[in-house]
Design goal:
With 65 residues, this protein is an all-alpha fold. It has a single domain, classed as Arc Repressor Mutant, subunit A (Orthogonal Bundle). It contains four helices and no strands.
Length: 65
């Protein structure tokens, strides 16, 4: 379910969430890799986390275990 939610994110959000949470890069490393300012990394991460939370919550409501 989480993988599907990550895959459903827009590319710019998916990129930063994978680099931060799976690859464990620092904000600076992500900024350098993505060629964006560090503030952009921070805002994209916040938005990506919010969308992931909404996606997982929604899917859990539809398919409770």
């Amino acid at each position: 379910m989480l993988r599907n939610c990550i895959e459903s994110l827009p590319l710019e959000y998916r990129e930063v969430i994978i680099l931060r949470e799976l690859e464990e890069l620092s904000y600076r490393e992500i900024a350098d890799t993505a060629s964006v300012p560090i503030g952009t990394v921070m805002s994209r991460l916040a938005r990506a986390r919010k969308r992931l939370e909404e996606c997982v919550t929604s899917r859990m409501k539809r398919h409770p275990r």
